[in-house]
Structure prediction request, 276 residues.
Amino acid sequence: MTLSKRMTSLCITLVVASLFLSIYASAASAPIHKTTVWVAPETETLINGIPESQTPMVTDVIMGPYFYRYDYNQKTTVDKYRHIAHFSHDNRLNKLSEQMEAQITNSASQGAEWSGNVEFTAEIKKKIIESLKGTLGISYKETRTTNEAVGYKVVHTVPAGKVGHINLYYRGYKIGGRLTVWTANTSNPSQSKRYATYDVNSTCIPVILWTFSLSRTMQTFKKPPLTVLLCLIVCFTLTSCFNTKNKSESVPDNYSLYSQYVDKVVKNSSQKDLRY
Prediction:
Protein backbone atom coordinates (compact mmCIF):
# COMPACT_ATOMS: atom_id res chain seq x y z
CA MET A 1 0.00 0.00 0.00
CA THR A 2 1.38 3.33 -0.95
CA LEU A 3 1.88 6.20 1.41
CA SER A 4 -0.84 8.26 -0.14
CA LYS A 5 -3.42 5.53 0.35
CA ARG A 6 -2.40 5.09 3.97
CA MET A 7 -2.77 8.76 4.62
CA THR A 8 -6.22 8.81 2.99
CA SER A 9 -7.38 5.82 5.06
CA LEU A 10 -6.09 7.42 8.25
CA CYS A 11 -7.90 10.66 7.54
CA ILE A 12 -11.16 8.86 6.91
CA THR A 13 -10.76 6.94 10.14
CA LEU A 14 -10.11 10.11 12.12
CA VAL A 15 -13.12 11.88 10.60
CA VAL A 16 -15.45 8.97 11.40
CA ALA A 17 -14.08 8.70 14.92
CA SER A 18 -14.48 12.43 15.59
CA LEU A 19 -18.02 12.36 14.23
CA PHE A 20 -18.94 9.42 16.46
CA LEU A 21 -17.41 11.10 19.52
CA SER A 22 -19.33 14.36 18.87
CA ILE A 23 -22.66 12.51 18.54
CA TYR A 24 -22.04 10.58 21.74
CA ALA A 25 -21.04 13.71 23.64
CA SER A 26 -24.17 15.61 22.57
CA ALA A 27 -26.41 12.67 23.51
CA ALA A 28 -24.79 12.37 26.91
CA SER A 29 -25.19 16.08 27.68
CA ALA A 30 -28.95 16.31 26.65
CA PRO A 31 -31.44 16.26 29.67
CA ILE A 32 -33.88 13.38 30.13
CA HIS A 33 -37.61 14.46 30.52
CA LYS A 34 -39.88 12.12 32.55
CA THR A 35 -43.08 14.36 32.54
CA THR A 36 -45.23 14.32 29.43
CA VAL A 37 -47.91 16.90 28.56
CA TRP A 38 -51.27 16.44 26.73
CA VAL A 39 -53.40 19.40 25.76
CA ALA A 40 -57.16 18.82 25.40
CA PRO A 41 -58.79 19.84 22.15
CA GLU A 42 -61.29 22.71 22.06
CA THR A 43 -64.99 22.02 22.66
CA GLU A 44 -68.10 23.78 21.38
CA THR A 45 -71.17 24.99 23.23
CA LEU A 46 -73.89 22.33 23.30
CA ILE A 47 -77.62 22.98 22.91
CA ASN A 48 -79.59 19.99 24.21
CA GLY A 49 -76.54 17.81 23.62
CA ILE A 50 -76.00 19.08 20.07
CA PRO A 51 -73.11 21.41 19.10
CA GLU A 52 -74.35 24.93 18.65
CA SER A 53 -72.98 25.15 15.11
CA GLN A 54 -75.11 22.16 14.13
CA THR A 55 -78.43 23.31 15.65
CA PRO A 56 -80.93 24.83 13.23
CA MET A 57 -81.55 28.53 13.59
CA VAL A 58 -85.08 29.31 14.85
CA THR A 59 -86.26 32.03 12.55
CA ASP A 60 -90.06 31.66 12.85
CA VAL A 61 -92.14 31.59 16.06
CA ILE A 62 -95.73 32.50 16.86
CA MET A 63 -96.24 35.77 18.69
CA GLY A 64 -99.36 36.83 20.55
CA PRO A 65 -102.18 36.73 21.35
CA TYR A 66 -102.89 40.45 20.98
CA PHE A 67 -106.13 42.33 21.52
CA TYR A 68 -108.17 43.12 18.43
CA ARG A 69 -111.71 43.90 19.64
CA TYR A 70 -114.20 43.19 22.42
CA ASP A 71 -117.99 43.06 22.06
CA TYR A 72 -119.96 43.39 25.31
CA ASN A 73 -123.23 41.45 25.45
CA GLN A 74 -124.40 41.15 29.10
CA LYS A 75 -123.92 42.59 32.57
CA THR A 76 -124.95 41.29 36.00
CA THR A 77 -124.59 43.16 39.29
CA VAL A 78 -122.90 41.29 42.13
CA ASP A 79 -123.68 43.29 45.28
CA LYS A 80 -121.64 41.13 47.64
CA TYR A 81 -118.66 40.59 45.36
CA ARG A 82 -115.73 41.06 47.76
CA HIS A 83 -116.14 41.15 51.54
CA ILE A 84 -114.37 44.11 53.17
CA ALA A 85 -115.22 43.93 56.88
CA HIS A 86 -117.81 42.85 59.44
CA PHE A 87 -118.93 44.83 62.49
CA SER A 88 -121.18 43.73 65.36
CA HIS A 89 -122.65 45.56 68.36
CA ASP A 90 -124.14 43.68 71.33
CA ASN A 91 -127.02 45.56 72.95
CA ARG A 92 -128.84 42.62 74.53
CA LEU A 93 -128.34 43.69 78.15
CA ASN A 94 -129.49 47.27 77.72
CA LYS A 95 -133.03 48.62 77.91
CA LEU A 96 -132.38 51.48 75.49
CA SER A 97 -131.27 51.54 71.85
CA GLU A 98 -127.65 52.45 71.04
CA GLN A 99 -125.79 53.87 68.07
CA MET A 100 -123.48 51.44 66.29
CA GLU A 101 -120.60 53.01 64.37
CA ALA A 102 -118.76 50.95 61.76
CA GLN A 103 -115.66 52.66 60.36
CA ILE A 104 -113.04 50.90 58.24
CA THR A 105 -109.50 51.34 59.55
CA ASN A 106 -107.79 48.79 57.29
CA SER A 107 -108.77 46.72 54.27
CA ALA A 108 -107.13 44.03 52.15
CA SER A 109 -106.53 44.15 48.40
CA GLN A 110 -109.22 42.51 46.26
CA GLY A 111 -108.88 41.32 42.68
CA ALA A 112 -111.05 40.70 39.65
CA GLU A 113 -112.03 37.43 38.00
CA TRP A 114 -111.42 36.40 34.38
CA SER A 115 -112.63 33.26 32.63
CA GLY A 116 -112.34 32.05 29.06
CA ASN A 117 -110.28 29.78 26.81
CA VAL A 118 -107.67 32.42 26.05
CA GLU A 119 -104.50 33.77 27.61
CA PHE A 120 -105.43 36.91 29.56
CA THR A 121 -102.32 39.02 29.15
CA ALA A 122 -101.97 42.39 30.84
CA GLU A 123 -102.56 44.09 27.50
CA ILE A 124 -105.78 42.14 26.84
CA LYS A 125 -107.23 42.85 30.30
CA LYS A 126 -106.42 46.55 30.02
CA LYS A 127 -108.06 46.79 26.60
CA ILE A 128 -111.21 45.00 27.79
CA ILE A 129 -111.59 47.44 30.71
CA GLU A 130 -111.06 50.39 28.37
CA SER A 131 -113.64 48.97 25.98
CA LEU A 132 -116.19 48.63 28.81
CA LYS A 133 -115.65 52.26 29.76
CA GLY A 134 -116.40 53.33 26.20
CA THR A 135 -119.44 51.02 25.89
CA LEU A 136 -121.10 51.41 29.30
CA GLY A 137 -119.73 54.78 30.31
CA ILE A 138 -118.46 53.40 33.63
CA SER A 139 -114.84 53.13 34.69
CA TYR A 140 -113.78 49.81 36.20
CA LYS A 141 -110.77 48.64 38.16
CA GLU A 142 -109.24 45.20 38.03
CA THR A 143 -108.04 45.31 41.65
CA ARG A 144 -108.66 47.25 44.84
CA THR A 145 -105.41 48.06 46.59
CA THR A 146 -104.64 47.55 50.27
CA ASN A 147 -106.40 50.06 52.58
CA GLU A 148 -108.31 51.58 49.67
CA ALA A 149 -111.55 51.38 51.68
CA VAL A 150 -110.10 53.04 54.79
CA GLY A 151 -112.25 55.87 56.09
CA TYR A 152 -115.65 54.59 55.04
CA LYS A 153 -118.15 54.99 57.90
CA VAL A 154 -121.63 53.61 58.58
CA VAL A 155 -123.86 54.44 61.58
CA HIS A 156 -126.77 52.20 62.56
CA THR A 157 -129.19 52.11 65.50
CA VAL A 158 -129.32 48.86 67.44
CA PRO A 159 -132.54 48.38 69.44
CA ALA A 160 -132.49 47.22 73.06
CA GLY A 161 -132.06 43.49 73.51
CA LYS A 162 -130.58 43.06 70.03
CA VAL A 163 -127.24 42.40 68.34
CA GLY A 164 -126.54 44.54 65.31
CA HIS A 165 -124.39 43.38 62.37
CA ILE A 166 -123.01 45.41 59.48
CA ASN A 167 -121.16 43.75 56.59
CA LEU A 168 -119.36 45.90 54.03
CA TYR A 169 -118.71 44.63 50.50
CA TYR A 170 -117.25 45.84 47.25
CA ARG A 171 -119.88 45.72 44.54
CA GLY A 172 -118.85 44.05 41.30
CA TYR A 173 -120.20 43.69 37.78
CA LYS A 174 -120.02 40.37 36.00
CA ILE A 175 -119.72 41.16 32.31
CA GLY A 176 -119.85 38.75 29.40
CA GLY A 177 -118.68 39.35 25.87
CA ARG A 178 -116.79 38.06 22.85
CA LEU A 179 -113.06 38.74 22.63
CA THR A 180 -111.20 38.70 19.31
CA VAL A 181 -107.41 38.34 19.35
CA TRP A 182 -104.75 37.89 16.71
CA THR A 183 -101.49 35.96 16.42
CA ALA A 184 -98.78 35.98 13.77
CA ASN A 185 -95.46 34.45 12.78
CA THR A 186 -92.36 36.47 13.52
CA SER A 187 -90.89 35.72 10.10
CA ASN A 188 -93.69 37.57 8.32
CA PRO A 189 -96.10 39.26 10.77
CA SER A 190 -98.01 41.32 8.25
CA GLN A 191 -98.79 38.36 5.99
CA SER A 192 -99.43 35.69 8.66
CA LYS A 193 -101.99 37.29 10.98
CA ARG A 194 -104.63 34.89 12.27
CA TYR A 195 -107.75 35.94 14.20
CA ALA A 196 -109.73 33.97 16.77
CA THR A 197 -112.82 34.84 18.83
CA TYR A 198 -113.58 33.55 22.33
CA ASP A 199 -116.44 33.88 24.82
CA VAL A 200 -115.04 35.49 27.96
CA ASN A 201 -116.41 36.64 31.32
CA SER A 202 -114.96 39.16 33.73
CA THR A 203 -116.02 40.42 37.15
CA CYS A 204 -114.55 43.85 37.85
CA ILE A 205 -115.02 46.51 40.51
CA PRO A 206 -116.27 50.01 39.61
CA VAL A 207 -113.85 52.85 40.16
CA ILE A 208 -116.49 54.64 42.30
CA LEU A 209 -115.02 53.70 45.68
CA TRP A 210 -117.96 53.83 48.08
CA THR A 211 -120.38 51.42 46.47
CA PHE A 212 -121.04 48.96 49.27
CA SER A 213 -123.82 46.56 50.14
CA LEU A 214 -124.96 46.56 53.75
CA SER A 215 -126.33 43.63 55.68
CA ARG A 216 -128.06 44.75 58.88
CA THR A 217 -129.39 41.77 60.81
CA MET A 218 -130.62 41.55 64.38
CA GLN A 219 -130.23 38.65 66.78
CA THR A 220 -131.76 38.15 70.24
CA PHE A 221 -131.37 35.69 73.07
CA LYS A 222 -133.33 32.58 72.31
CA LYS A 223 -136.12 32.19 74.87
CA PRO A 224 -136.35 28.75 76.48
CA PRO A 225 -139.31 26.67 75.30
CA LEU A 226 -142.44 26.57 77.46
CA THR A 227 -141.95 22.86 78.16
CA VAL A 228 -138.56 23.58 79.72
CA LEU A 229 -140.09 26.19 82.02
CA LEU A 230 -142.84 23.78 83.08
CA CYS A 231 -140.31 21.06 83.85
CA LEU A 232 -138.33 23.48 86.00
CA ILE A 233 -141.45 24.48 87.94
CA VAL A 234 -142.46 20.85 88.54
CA CYS A 235 -138.96 19.91 89.70
CA PHE A 236 -138.86 22.86 92.10
CA THR A 237 -142.29 21.94 93.53
CA LEU A 238 -141.40 18.29 94.04
CA THR A 239 -138.13 19.23 95.72
CA SER A 240 -139.90 21.58 98.11
CA CYS A 241 -142.50 18.95 99.01
CA PHE A 242 -139.84 16.34 99.62
CA ASN A 243 -137.89 18.63 101.93
CA THR A 244 -141.07 19.54 103.88
CA LYS A 245 -142.00 15.87 104.31
CA ASN A 246 -138.56 15.05 105.66
CA LYS A 247 -138.78 17.86 108.17
CA SER A 248 -142.26 16.83 109.36
CA GLU A 249 -141.15 13.24 109.84
CA SER A 250 -138.06 14.18 111.80
CA VAL A 251 -139.90 16.38 114.33
CA PRO A 252 -141.56 13.54 116.34
CA ASP A 253 -138.30 11.69 116.68
CA ASN A 254 -136.57 14.73 118.01
CA TYR A 255 -139.50 15.57 120.28
CA SER A 256 -139.62 12.07 121.80
CA LEU A 257 -135.92 12.17 122.54
CA TYR A 258 -136.33 15.52 124.21
CA SER A 259 -139.28 14.23 126.28
CA GLN A 260 -137.30 11.24 127.43
CA TYR A 261 -134.44 13.50 128.51
CA VAL A 262 -136.80 15.80 130.44
CA ASP A 263 -138.45 12.84 132.20
CA LYS A 264 -135.08 11.48 133.20
CA VAL A 265 -134.00 14.82 134.65
CA VAL A 266 -137.24 15.19 136.59
CA LYS A 267 -136.97 11.66 137.92
CA ASN A 268 -133.44 12.20 139.17
CA SER A 269 -134.47 15.41 140.84
CA SER A 270 -137.33 13.64 142.63
CA GLN A 271 -135.02 10.94 143.86
CA LYS A 272 -132.65 13.55 145.28
CA ASP A 273 -135.49 15.31 147.06
CA LEU A 274 -136.61 12.03 148.66
CA ARG A 275 -133.13 11.39 150.03
CA TYR A 276 -133.07 14.68 151.81
Residues 209-215, 248-252, 269-276 have pLDDT under 50 and may be disordered. The first helix runs from residue 3 to 29. Residues 227 and 233 are 10 Å apart (CA to CA). Residues 64-219 form a domain with the Proaerolysin; Chain A, domain 3 fold (CATH 2.170.15).
